[in-house]
Design brief:
426 residues, four-stranded mixed sheet, binds pyridoxal-5'-phosphate, alpha/beta, 14 helices
Length: 426
């Protein structure tokens, strides 16, 4: 790369682009011109270890040649076809292969474009399910500190805060409860019992609440809540957009819980992080409530790029890699290394808590003024790690590692060493 082009891209970017979740006045986006495995490279040739999997999407590393070859092949075979009135092999094969990996009660796949749309589809399925079966249920149960996306429906069911404040009058009615734990489960059940007639569904991030601060809850209390809802006709939407495809150490969070949802949402790792694609799966009994001679009972939802053949090809290629013994071995290696490091730093005087779920490792710094997105600790940690060639994106005082599964033991140890230095210096 030509020296000096880094500044050129920065200037041109600033002139025309508006970045997500970014106060542009203080922003300094880094131009990245190439990716290879665990690394991203800037225009000056500096490399960054991608410890956030580029916003939790990358599974097998950047610019993976196998996925690239499969997508290239698809590009010159069939790049796009309308998915209403038509279908294509990639959409069929991906649905077949994904359903075979999910809990047995998941029978149908509905394609969309991203995590937020996968959630919108799930919510609409539940509300129209009630409508189609002659009931009126429009209230939704969700968890405090949850995150399900940035479109209006997804925002409505996400925890309310600074992000949603400008829109709060426009978000629909949601009943929020704390993430399930021994001390609140009975109170939550009482609330559900009281509202069961109007509750269309319960939507939740299983085991790990990602954007809300990488908060974790125990599978056994979630299971209890799921079963309680099921017994009262409240449908269950399990949002595996973040945790799906190996992040928890198993393929899906569902594999840890021992209770099955009615609807599941996927995106992020679905294509190995190469292309946007969303999937909402559901049980037959939901699908059957729309399956009718009456055209009015159809699910009226779709996007221009529904079931993009390119994204399906990427997802199929990613599944090949994910299910390979070497990737499964790498995942276990990450889980074990995280576990050992978590035990090593647990109890450090600067840390409030250390927690882990599979390949997700979380270190929560102690702060004087509580957890906040704008807290100073993140403003210290972000540049500290960047200077050491590591990309992290702390949520307030919460530093988390969500590495692509191709990371080596050595690379992970390098990151741990820098964390120990950050603890010494913070
Ligand atoms: C990121 C995320 C979403 C939204 O996905 P987008 O593709 O960013 O719209 C939904 N649910 C969860 C749990 C997420 O982490």
């Amino acid at each position: 790369m030509m020296k000096g082009s880094q500044q050129n891209w920065i200037t041109r970017d600033k002139a025309v682009n508006w970045h997500p979740y970014t106060q542009m006045k203080t922003a300094h986006p880094i131009p990245i011109v190439r990716g290879d495995g665990i690394y991203l490279f800037d225009a000056d040739g500096r490399r960054y270890l991608d410890m956030v999997s580029s916003w939790w999407v990358t599974l097998h590393g950047h610019a993976h040649p196998y996925i690239a070859a499969k997508v290239a092949e698809q590009l010159t075979t069939l790049e796009q076809v309308i998915f209403a009135g038509f279908t294509h092999p990639g959409a069929v094969e991906l649905a077949e292969r994904l359903l075979a990996l999910l809990p047995e009660n998941q029978h149908k796949v509905f394609y969309s474009d991203n995590g937020s749309t996968a959630v919108e589809v799930g919510l609409k399925m539940c509300v129209q399910y009630a409508h189609n079966t002659g009931k009126r249920k429009t209230k939704i149960l969700a968890l405090e500190n949850g995150y399900h996306g940035d479109t209006f429906g997804a925002m409505s069911v996400s925890g309310r805060g600074k992000w949603t404040a400008p829109f709060c009058d426009m978000l629909f009615d949601v009943l929020f409860v704390d993430a399930p734990a021994s001390e609140n489960i009975e109170a939550t059940k009482l609330l559900i019992e009281r509202h069961k007639e109007e509750l269309a569904c319960f939507i939740y991030e299983p085991l790990v609440q990602g954007a809300g601060g990488m908060l974790m809850h125990e599978a056994k209390y979630l299971k209890e809540l799921m079963e309680y809802c099921r017994d009262r006709g409240v449908l269950l939407i399990q949002d595996e957009v973040f945790v799906g495809f190996g992040r928890t150490g198993r393929l899906f969070a569902a594999d840890h819980i021992g209770a099955t949802p009615d609807i599941m949402c996927f995106s992020k790792g679905l294509t190995g992080g190469t292309m946007p694609l969303g999937i909402t799966t559901c049980s037959d009994f939901i699908y059957n409530a729309f399956y009718n001679d009456d055209k009015q009972k159809a699910l009226f939802h779709g996007h221009s790029f529904t079931a993009s053949p390119l994204a399906c090809a990427a997802a199929l290629a990613s599944l090949d890699l994910l299910l390979s013994p070497s990737t499964q071995q790498n995942i276990q290696q990450i889980v074990n290394q995280h576990h050992a490091f978590a035990r090593y730093v647990d109890g450090h005087p600067k840390l409030q808590q250390v927690r882990q779920c599979g390949t997700i490792l979380v270190l929560e710094w102690k702060t004087g003024h509580g957890s906040s997105y704008f807290s100073e600790i993140s403003e210290f940690l972000y540049p500290f790690f960047l200077d050491r060639g590591i990309l992290v994106r702390p949520l307030g005082n919460v530093l988390y590692l969500v590495p692509p599964f191709c990371i080596s033991g050595e690379q992970l140890n390098y990151v741990y060493d820098q964390i120990l230095e950050a603890l010494d210096n913070s």
